[in-house]
Amino acid sequence: MKLIIFGPPGSGKGTYSSRLKERYGIERISTGEIFRAAMKEGSLLGKMVENYVKKGEIVPDEIVIEVVKKEIEGKENFILDGFPRTIKQAEALKEMVKIDAIILINCHEEILVEKICARRICSNPKCDGNYNIANIQKVIGGIEYKLPPLLPKNDMVCDKCGSPLVQRDDDKPEIVRERLKIYNQQTFPLIEYYKKEKIPFIEVWMNKAVDEIVEEIVNKLKNLGLI
Fold first, then answer.
1. Which candidate in 21, 115, 120, 179 is catalytic?
2. For 6-17, what is each residue's pLDDT tens digit?
3. In the annotation, is 36 catalytic?
4. Does domain 2-107+175-223 have CATH number 3.40.1030.10?
5. pTM score, two decimals?
């Protein structure tokens, strides 16, 4: 099963894809995490992408495409998180593999900014621990948001590996809004691209607890006969 998970920054793509990995063994390929790990290690790739990531800008297509091509080689089951982000990347991916379905996460911008700024991730580059300290209870545009915090068992320590939790440099308000602007300008058109390609869509709202959203995604994957 080959999936893409789409949604604006902070919509929970990393969390949901991690849960799917845990339950079904679907390999999670996150370009963002690959780049952040490379930056921490000080590798050649890390030095190439550092300036783009810290400014909240999209890494050039040529770099991202080569990284993803290497990551998916030989894999039969995976979920792409953070790729593709442009039409050029989508066209390159089409030459590599056939995508079975796209998971699309919807959320209002006001909620996203609040949620992203409250995100805390594991400082260990080899761990995908992901948490959030915000407790959001609001109604916007007829959508009721009940988003409880996703807290570690021990304050500011990752449940998975025991490393300290940190706030990403690009999770500050001014960078968050710039990332959302870039998403709307450059990545949102991918939705139309894939609809024209007749790829099945699974749409959910990021308006409730993580486990409830994951169950909704799982049920829709079952309806498509993918699980």
1. 179
2. 988 888 888 898
3. no
4. no
5. 0.80
